[in-house]
Amino acid sequence: MICVVGEILFDVFPSYKRLGGAPFNFAFHLKNLGFPVRFISRIGNDPDGKKILSLLERYRFDLNDIQLDDIHPTGTVKVKLDEYGVPQFRITSDVAYDYIEFIPESHRELIRQAELVY
Prior knowledge:
single chain, alpha/beta, UDP-N-acetylmuramoyl-L-alanine:D-glutamate ligase, four-stranded mixed beta sheet
């Protein structure tokens, strides 16, 4: 099993948004390749967070590994494309994934069993 810890967020483009965050992208692609993956992250208890939970459930991630934050919002990255289509990114700060908690009771055994921690 591969354990991935890190951010999941929405990349917000002018006309749409999509899931992003390097750790999530890594976990998502490993899972699609058939590897057993656990993904630990933190999202806001807000509409974006609820949408992320829904998508993670659809992709069959273990929702017990996702922490809900009542204080900080779900992470976003504002993406603006210049006249050549080159993206410029503005990362929102002080968001839920900045406060991922290591919870020894629930994560110690998970990390011990992992063949790889990212």
